[in-house]
Amino acid sequence: MLRRDHRILVSLVCATLSCGCSHLSADRTWKGGREALTAYVGEWKNEDLNSRNIARVIIALPTDRPDNPSIHVWGKCGSRECDLGLLTGARHRNAIVAISNDRFATSTLTLSLQRDGHLNVDSQRHFSDSSGRPDYEVSEHFVKQ
Predict the structure, then answer these.
(1) Tell me, what CATH number does 51's domain have?
(2) What are phi and psi of 136, to 5 degrees?
(3) Dihedral class, residue 3 (left if φ above 0, else alpha if ψ from -120 to 50, else beta)
(4) What is the DSSP letter of 52?
(5) I want to staple 24 with a disulfide (CB 3.0 to 4.6 A). Which of 9, 39, 41, 90 is the partner?
(6) What is the domain range of residue 127?
(7) Where are the alpha helices (DSSP H) in the chain?
(8) 44 neighbors 143 (Cβ within 8 angstroms)
(9) Where are the beta strands (DSSP E) in the chain?
(10) Is pLDDT at 43 greater than 70 in this prediction?
(11) pLDDT tier at 30 (50, 70, 90 boundaries)?
């Protein structure tokens, strides 16, 4: 059985899976064009091997929608990785962003390349129901494999 924090992360990613991100367009502030976006392509592993959140991501640029990267996400489920699914992102302010609104929360994943070559992944969750759950944000660093 998944612990509460893993269920939240699974909910975050599953909610984001339904996002077409149609309200995000290729941002005019994006620097470097397609070449900059291709720098994201590949497999990235969390540098914190003990992270209880996202363990690994694979980013690809589908030929039919090269401005909307696909992001395959794996979480940490106990001692093993678990497949959390495929997301569709959009370029936005020199990052890749995926946003989802479900019936009780808004989820945002923001992926940005750092000058040192790491990929920073910010996961935000804003609860809009009356559950009283606190919003949260997790920022993690990934190394390209």
Answers:
(1) 2.40.128
(2) -150, 160
(3) beta
(4) S
(5) 90
(6) 4-144
(7) 4-17, 33-38
(8) yes
(9) 42-46, 54-60, 70-77, 80-88, 90-92, 95-101, 105-113, 119-127, 136-144
(10) yes
(11) low
- Strand, coil or helix: 7: helix
pLDDT per residue over 48-100, tens digit each? 999 988 999 999 999 888 889 999 989 898 889 999 778 899 988 889 998 76
Question: In percent, how much of the chain has pLDDT > 90?
Answer: 48
pLDDT at 134: 96
Length of the chain equals: 145
User: How far apart are alpha carbons 135 and 145 in whole angstroms?
Assistant: 32
Burial class (CB in 10 A: 0-12, 13-18, 19+), 127: middle
CA distance 73 to 144: 14
Q: What amino acid is encoded at 15 in this protein? A: A
Q: How many domains does the chain have?
A: 1
Mean pLDDT of all residues in 8-32:
42
